[in-house]
Amino acid sequence: MKNNKEKNIRQVLIASSHPLFGQGLRSLLEDRKAYTVQVVGMVSSLEEAITALEELNPDMIIVDYDDEKLNRDEFLARFVEGEKKLRVVLLSLQSGNEALVYDRRTLAASDIDEWLKYDENEQENTDLQISGDSPAKGDEMNRRTNMKHLFIAAILVLISTLIISVGMEYIQILPVQASAQAVPIDRLFGIEFKIIAFLFSLIVVFMIYSIVVFRRKPGDMEDAVHIEGNTKLEVLWTILPLITVMVLAYLGGQSLAETLRADPRPIEIEAIGQQWSWRFEYPEFGVVSNILMMPVNKQALVSLTSNDVIHSFWVPEFRVKQDALPGGDEFVRQIRITPTLKGDYKVRCAELCGEKHADMRAPVKVVSQDDFEAWLAEESGLPDDPVGRGSKWVEQYGCVACHSLDGSDSVGPTWKGIYETQETLSDGTSVTVNEEYIRDSILNPGKNIVQGFSNVMPANFSQQLTDQQITDIVQFIKSLN
Hints:
Elements (H helix, E strand, L loop, with lengths): L1 H5 L3 E6 L3 H13 L5 E7 L2 H11 L3 E5 L7 H8 L7 E9 L2 E6 L5 H8 L3 H5 L5 E2 L3 H37 L10 H32 L17 H29 L7 E8 L2 E6 L4 E3 L2 E4 L4 E7 L4 E4 L6 E4 L8 E5 L5 E7 L11 E7 L1 H12 L5 H11 L25 E3 L5 E3 L2 H9 L17 H4 L2 H13 L2
Parallel strand pairs: 1-2, 1-3, 3-4, 5-6, 7-11, 10-16
Antiparallel strand pairs: 4-5, 7-8, 8-9, 11-14, 12-13, 12-15, 15-16, 17-18
């Protein structure tokens, strides 16, 4: 220590609980060859500083001004106003490229430069600027700089949000709005899209702005400013999303209530899903169809069931969706649809339901009331010949979803030319495909499975088809020979 005193080397003690602050400042001071400074130690509390004072006998203590764990007033009272008077410098590194020095003794800014023997030429070539402003003035300058950057970034966030929102409306993310139930749902989607645009802009704009504005300058090899967490920001960032989620939940409840609003006399439609087709029954009119026909501006109450596994009824243009569950009447689910735009759409199954799930689609036609009534009158009539009736039952009950009529491979055996042929069953026995076998296969689908195929046929056709309908289907299969 004596040798250092004789060489007029200033001995500095650094006080900070942040390791990066102490290491960075030590590196900064010791790398400046113009300095006659030696960092003799680093402490993290007043007690350690008192101990180091006796052992190391420093000329100056540099205290981390931004360290909330250190009591700056105690350092000043102990070493500036106490018996052992030292130069105490409070150093803040939270102003970007500036280091603000708050000397609480009598040392002016010019004396700091002189004391460190730091010439002006070198100061112009470094990003470290030592200022002798008061703490209040330094804080005010920092606030102004931060507010300027915050204001610019906020404007850019708003511009980006506007551009993205307009862009999403222009490219029409959602399909055409074709039902009254789609209106409240699209309104909620619109709010959520704007929130998404804002959050995306908030993250990306601030990230790009920081990369561009606060990037490391060429030749700058110094450590970045050590930044602790901001409790106020963290609390705000917790409360705002919570409020947003609660507001969206409330708006979602309102939208759901609007989609469930019932008209006095809706059209009743029963939609039955099965692997892999849809069937639609109009019990009031005695019509069964594989086409969902609906009059415009008239609410339909659609009751959903399934013959086998869980399916999901979904027409994207109507927005609403509901599962079709197996299990009988107690598992019937209902959905209300009021078409508002005439046109052709498709029912899709939105629940993975097996091998041909992707093909489980059915036409939807929204027509005028007059066209709807004409269609009902046409569909309620039956052909005179059994083959014609059988062809209708095969289409309506979705048989062609598994059995091809042209000889092509499918989930089940093709019906083309199958009548009176010999088929090998899964147990190795052979059977003649006659009327008795076909009827038995419809009523007991798991009894005789053709080799190479699995049993995916609904087991409740015996409850849905009459004997006459089964006879008509047999006659239709015969006609394919």
